[in-house]
Amino acid sequence: MSKISRRSVLRGIVRGAVVGVALPYLDCFLGTSGQALAATGQRIPTRFGTWIWGCGFVPEKWIPTSTGKTYEMPEDLKPLEPYRDRLAILSGFDVKLDGVPNKPHITGCLGLRTGVPVPNEIVKAPTLDVLIGDAIGNGTRFRSIEISTSGIERSYSYRGAGSPNPSEVSPLRLYQRLFVEGFQDPNAAEFAPDPRTMARQSVLSAVQEDRRRLMREVGADDRRRLDEYFSSVRQLEQQLALQLEPPARVENFTMPKAPTNFVLDAEMDNVMVTHRLMAGLLAKALQCNQTRVFNVLFSDTTSNLRRAGSTTTHHTLTHEEPVDAKLGYQKEVGWFATRSMIAWREFLDEIAGIPEGDGTLLDHCLILAHSDCSIAKAHAVEGIPVMIAGNAGGRVRTGFHLAGKADPVTRVGLTVQQAMGLQVDRWGALSMDTNRTVSEILA
Amino acid sequence: MRSDSERRGTCGVAVAALLLLATLSGCGDRLREPDAVGGPPVMRRLTESQYRDTVASIFGADIPVTARFERGLRAEGLIAIGSSEAGMSPFSIEQYDAAALGVAAAVTGEKNRERFVPCKPGAGVAFDARCAQRFVEQYAPLLFRRSLAPEETSRFVAMARTGQERIGNFYAGLELALAGMMVSPEFLLRIERTEPDPDHPDRRRLDNWSKATRLSYFLINSTPDQELLRAAAADELSTRKGLQRQVERLLGSPRFEPAVRAFFEDMLQFDKFDDLAKDSVVYPAFNSTVAADAKEQTLRTITHLLVEQHGDYRDLFTTRQSFLTRPLGIVYRVPVPTRNGWESREFPEGSHRVGIQSHVAFLALYSHPGRSSATLRGKGIREVFLCQEVPDPPANVNFAAVQETSNAKMPTARDRLNVHRTQPACAGCHKIMDPLGLTLENFDGLGTYRAVENEVPIDASGSIDGIDFQTPEGLGQALHDHPETPRCLVERMYRYAVGRDTEMEERSYMDYLTRSFAASKFRVPELMRTIALSENFFAISAPQEDDAHDDEQVALDQ
Fold first, then answer.
1. CB of B126 within 8 Å of any CB in chain A?
2. Which of A17, B10, B58, B213 is the least buried, fewest Cβ under 10 Å from its Cβ?
């Protein structure tokens, strides 16, 4: 980065009491590619997100029988037909355990996201969304936004062991965090920085004065934790700094309304409603640049989803439901798997529903959707279903099915990181270590 | 898993012998503390309950803490240990900031400022640095749990000055300074500091402030009060007499009972209530009030027995004494005349409600959303009350044999779980969980009593570690008598107090605590006193490694 930051330019102007001034966006403040908006001359940023659903799939209903562009979408992918051109279906990529005990529903998910399988939740590397967030998430109010739609307040986004990023579970709370407290309407006619915000900002910078002393007082592990504390404080400071700037105008942005009529629990119909509401809020937050990174947990990996009146959850069913002799798979489990893909379609509907530049927000996103296992009954981490949606501002190609042929899934993770502009040429540990991207994806 | 098996055999004998010894002649040599070894110092993040209790004890319970605390990280069975490992995400800083601003606004707002601000600012527009300094000097030591260096004080006074200059009002300046203290690392993190131990050149010990802090959060779940800070400053905590005086004072404090409650909330993993969901068709009586009351019922039962009655810890597993509200009465099928609030109740003999493991809180937490689970309950008892780890199921196990609840051939859970025994891969673990949990099968997934499942009478016989029983009463008695029951409590309590796992070398110390606990007839406040007065509690094992150089550049140059 060059020595002048966008913020320091703006800060000078704010301090000089010139307000409401529209600033040209300089190229050095933006990513390397992307399209410019006609109206404002701003480049459109590229966003990255993950979308997780729990308990895998029913292979016969999900894996296309042929590869390439002309594959036919099986039953569970059918709802995604409208996004055929915007999706890469990746089957047959494995998490390689190298003898690490497979903790059901955890090892596969975290292995895929960190490149290093672990027998518990003590990750040995940051999840890839955090790596990407550190690279692209610094100029926005939130480095990333985490959402969980089935009532479980967790995420699979980890900066390190003991440092998960917790999820928002309520649409209303998400709305308040994104669009009420500290939000600035990008299209408001007037702008006046709040002197209180300036004072708070100076408090936060004073709080960091002890950094050096404290770092010396603690051991190595605690230094990492302190470091996380200080970078989190810096993010907060930055949120305040952004509030002192006139926000950049955003075309076609309308303020969302406070969400109503939702029930927070794990019953499938309620989760679908909650998920859709939260997806809509997230799409708007991406549109007006509140964040560039997100993680959505549609259902937890040990899926607690259930049907009203049923005594068992999706996860329990995967283990206890007998295989239907006629269908050849677990019928009830299949119901949840199908609905999960409908939810994924609805997520894409919300993202693609935001016009941006010549197309939609989806053109400027790279969304990695995945589960924690392939066949949940056996907790198999071979062939975990993975999809990539969106084109990352032209940096990725979609519209095909590709069979991974038991390659390590870290190839996908590496590809995604490169597509997002990270300088990384290999990723993963032991059998998961790879320097081979999926070249079909990189444009 | 710990290699306690060899110990287990001798333990029961030792306990029995000690009980005898204690009754006959009081304490013998076996109750002398072994040489202290201690462990490493830790950096603990304030838990939500500590944060709330700290604000309440400094400012008063009427000062609102409005923030959404992220779920505490649990490690080795305790959030207290997780708090020594947990990081601090941007989300949590946002929330801490919101909490700090809310508390600061309430404390310096018009309604309360006379109560909290020790002086009135001088007339005129100039910033009254003296008054601001008095304010900082009154609250910063309580928040930081130590005295402040002059330059630290002046930093917060400067914050107040900036605040007044920017916002134009003295109290707004104080508000910002207070909020600044409350987002400081020194408030949110309890950073333990050590000093050489003059009596033992080979080890270190906590400095006085860190001692006071450990003591205080252990015994009153809150920050050291003025008196404890005074004693720390006067070096009184390093004398036996001085320490004793403070420990007795804290044990007698009204905040002692909330501290016991906070411990059990952690040990019983009641944060799981945040995720508790029941199917509204299967269990229409369940709602958020029932959930909150169920949790409160068990905690009340515990503090009533252990603190108010100074009772035997093991009686928690056999007591029929409890407390109920009307919404809980619906689940227990017991009429509760009191319209609002709590009523002390004794469950009748033969009602099978004996011990906290027969409460709705435990039964509902360790069940599925739509049905009971003997396996989850058995696992819960093993892990929570006996400190035994049950491994995860093998990843590639075939569960197909365990059928749906409506299967006519296997009407009850016992029939369905029998399948576990036919599969060698399952049998190893399930035989230590299921027989135990099956005894609680008379309670459905919410905890309501039932005699039948799918019209077939429920057989509630079960066993634990060679003891057979036919009813929940038998299970309660077996848990009461189990040698691991008190040992587990001791282990958890000590780890909770020091915020870390026990070290190998601390074994004989743990044995000492277990013996003392038995000698006190399993009185929990006595155990807490023993820990607080022990040398090991403040001891720091090896000299702190000077590892501040390896990744110093990485860490510092940001």
1. no
2. A17
